[in-house]
Prior knowledge:
By secondary structure, this protein is α/β, with parallel strands linked by helices. Helix content is 31%, strand content 15%. It contains 8 helices and 7 strands, in the order E-H-E-H-E-E-H-H-E-H-H-E-H-E-H. It has a 7-stranded parallel beta sheet, covered by helices on one side.
Amino acid sequence: MKFKIDHDYHIHSKLSSCSRDPEQTGDRMLDYARKNGLSRICVANHYWDSAVEGASGWYKPQNFEHISKDCPLPKADGIEFLFGCECEMDKFMTLGMPVQRFDDFDFVIIPTTHLHMTGFTITAEDAESKDRIAELWVKRLEALLNMPLPFHKIGIAHLACDLINKKSRQDFLETLKLISSEDMERLFKKAAKLGCGIELNQSDMSFSDEEADIVLRSFRIAKECGCKFYLGSDAHHPKDFENAKEIFERAVTLLDLREDDKFHIG
Length: 266
């Protein structure tokens, strides 16, 4: 059976500093779910816990007290609304969440590709080198997979995110090409064994036909290694919901995903 578009586990509310859109509310997310036949959605705002030192000035206000203002989440028949977060990992491979805090969330998204935050997730020197960025793609994912975490409730966000290299679209694509398939295979075999989810992010999947093989290479290797996938619109504003299902459908078709390839939280 083909992979069914029945969930969205990466949605930001107005509480995320990159949104701050008064229209991006829990009720608006439920409306999106109803219109698109989704039975499970998750709010996942940017987050760095106050108990962990090293937050950037941008992340520091986005602590648990702040993002939990979304709770209690609104309810609707036939739709399960989960409380999650998108927790950062800095340039020292420090995760902005103590292990004991995982119990407070239904789902935790961890990006390893937010390499646009110069000085926080990457040094200025490393940000200038495509080769170094490609090396960091590997090292950061490896560092995450080596952490003692509850991987049954963890999703690895947007592995083909253009934030890897923001200089130009061409620089981004060339950086992806520099990541070896051997490293990808090694890491995705470990990810499959740990049982975490691999995200199909709406933004990552908005590529041209000519770019498809480059962008999808990591996901095809992940599938071959037995990884499981989930969908994330990464919506920050209501307009971001408009084409999400169509983009998800295209990605699922191109990757030939089946229901057996779906990640189930827990």
